[in-house]
Amino acid sequence: MIQSLLIANRGEIACRIIRTARRMGVRTVAVFSDADRNALHVRQADDAVHIGPSPARESYLVGERIIAAALESGAQAIHPGYGFLSENADFAQDVIDAGLIWVGPRPDSIRAMGLKNAAKARMIAAGVPVTPGYLGEDQSPERLQAEAYAIGYPVLIKAVAGGGGKGMRRVDAAAAFADALASCRREAASSFGDDRVLIEKYILSPRHIEVQVFGDAHGNVVHLFERDCSLQRRHQKVIEEAPAPGMDEVTRAAVCGAAVRAAQAVNYEGAGTIEFIADASEGLRADRVWFMEMNTRLQVEHPVTEMITGVDLVEWQLRVASGEALPKRQDQLSINGWAMEARLYAEDPAKGFLPSVGRLDILDFSTSERVDAGVSETDVISPFYDPMIAKVIVHRPDRAEAAAELARAVGNIMIWPVRTNAGFLTAALSHPEFTAAIIDTGFIARNEDALVVRPDANDKLWLYAARELTGNFKWTPLNGFRLNAPGVDQLVISLDGVSKTVDLQSSAHPDPLAGGIGLASYACDGGLAIIRNGHSYLFQHQMRGSGHHSLHDGDIVSPMPGRVIAVEVAAGQAVTKGQTLLVLEAMKMEHALVAPFDGTVTELNVQTGAQVQVDALLVRVEAE
Predict the structure, then answer these.
(1) CA pair distance 278, 226, nearest whole angstrom
(2) Other C-beta atoms within 10 Å of 394: how many?
(3) pLDDT, tens digit, for every residue of 159-168?
(4) 183 is in which domain, residue-wise?
(5) Are residues 186 and 226 both part of a single domain?
(6) Contact at 8 Å (CB) between 369 and 342?
(7) Do 120 and 251 sit in the same domain of this protein?
(8) Does one domain contain both 396 and 482?
């Protein structure tokens, strides 16, 4: 058995691996960049080695430094986690060549599944059903367009080396094909250094079904059943569950059997996921589920599989990498209950899901459910990496109970001042279509406008805030603090730039917490932050009769360090709600900053090309 393990990753997955390793008595070594010097995974590991500057390309993506850190620290093995170098066959081979144990599939298996066109050809040979499409070597625009016509629109253009939703374009008609192809190729070349594409039939009611597989060096391969990952935003998974809703035993046997054949076709060892796309227009049927790709690593959503099977997949990884046989045979694995996972991100859904960075002054998960987190209170969300804060996972006897409990757990999360998607997740989990299992990969896009809306503060919430701000409201367990102030009958407070005079002696709501409102409050920023059902409200105190708003909701500040690549407005210009004001390039992505309401640009502090720091005031919009 491996005795010492270096984890070539950070954040939540590094902490997750450390937890299992510690239980197994395995010494752990963390690696860290400048930005992660005091990170949670560094604090939890037995040892830690610095590997470079904050940008991932100068630290976590430099294989030579990671291998050197393993040798320097005396680690026997390297676990890559997910992301970064986890599916890099060359890095895996370098680890092995350095005399270390690679906790993952063999490099040739990674290569075999790395290119989508070659992987599909291999799957066809193995008798695994694949989505109808074109995988040929002729990449001329004329041939590709002809193949798209033969397949029948709509079609999907996909980069052969793609992943993470990049290098993908849906095309609904022949007239749009040429432009979509050119755009897809540019993005593929930029992201992967390979502009080759394949063409697939676009499924109009798609479900994303994936199967967890596991192999060992003794020729054994098993599946651990399926997960449904259909709730996605821009091809990124948001909520996952296991098993898949509506999956009957005949279809399950066909899909899971195909997944095992896929793994066997590449002599797979370790944890992997076979991803399928299903045409769910008439429910899940075995003849309408097709292979998409294989992820040759542990998945972000692996906890839901662990919950329904009672298996620790990281433990299995370490045992298989140590040369042991799989701990269980296929007939010893079964499904128990229902599990769901929600990904909690530091982002602001109300502002186009812009990442939110900064210090976590308040971080309270307030739940007994499983939480896989990569940060703790007072840690900082960095602009250099993926903004995931944690994964919240529940396990219940049935789907309805799992969804209700997950919504409750996420809705009770208390984080401040970093913005999160907790309210968005709560709304999605409570949506009638989701609870009825009427889901496909377009669910979020169809409902996004409704899901991102923060419920208006009602009179009870205004009264609660006003009483808290004066210190007149009685202490309750839900209170996070008290402010002492002289007793008054009325108070003028503001929320989102709107002021209201609140009657503190209101007889209409003698106790605003009555009826199970369920909220928490914190003193901050000269006011009161209230977290309710995952949504945050910042109430601020002002002198009665004052026309001054302490909170400028029209202040557009930089959510992170970055470069302004486009300015779309000028000072004095009238703008409408949702109109793009400027575009910021940060965290390898373009972020459009938009007007929060109809108004006028009264202040413009940047120009194209400017480098800005976090919280810099870029634009100010005054409401009409």
Answers:
(1) 13
(2) 27
(3) 988 766 778 9
(4) 132-201
(5) no
(6) no
(7) yes
(8) no
Position 587 confidence tier, pLDDT thresholds 50, 70, 90: low
The mean-pLDDT minimum among 59-68, 74-83, 154-163, 525-534 falls in 525-534
CA dist 537 → 452, 469, 495 (Å):
14, 14, 7
User: Hey, what amino acid is at 267?
Assistant: N
Return phi, psi of residue 127, to 5°: 80, 25
Do 115 and 259 belong together in one domain? yes
Paired strand residues for 592: 583
Query: What is the C-alpha to C-alpha distance for residues 169 and 243, in angstroms, rounded to an integer?
Result: 29
Closest CA to 240 of 451, 390, 393: 393
- The confidence score (pLDDT) of residue 82 equals 95
Q: Does any domain span residue 550?
A: no
Residue 419 among the catalytic residues: no
Pair (54, 110) in one structural domain: no
Asked if 116 and 224 sit in the same domain, the reply is yes
What single string gives the DSSP state of each residue in 430-494? H-HHHHTT---TTHHHHHHHHHTPPPPP-HHHHHHHHHHHHT-SPP-TT----------SEEEEE
Q: Percentage of residues in the chain with pLDDT exceeding 70?
A: 92
- H helix intervals, 244-334: 249-265, 302-309, 313-321
Mean residue pLDDT of the chain comes to 90
The verdict on 281 and 244 lying in the same domain is yes
Closest by CA to 318, choosing from 78, 90, 88, is 78
- Quick one: average pLDDT of 388-397? 97
482 vs 93, higher pLDDT: 93
pLDDT of 516 strictly over 60:
no
Last residue of a domain, one of 336, 360, 383: 336
**What total number of domains does the chain contain?**
6
Would you say residue 591 lies in a domain? yes
Same domain, 99 and 110: no
In this predicted structure, what is the pLDDT of residue 98? 98
Q: Which amino acid is at 241?
A: E
Exactly one of 297, 319, 343, 467 is catalytic; name it: 297
Question: Which residue, chain included where needed, has tokens 């890559």?
Answer: 80
Single pTM value for the model: 0.83
Task: Give pLDDT, residue 518.
Answer: 54
Q: Is residue 549 part of a domain?
A: no
Could you tell me if 530 and 519 are in contact, meaning their C-beta atoms sit under 8 angstroms apart?
yes
Half-sphere exposure of 514 (CA within 13 A, CB side): 6
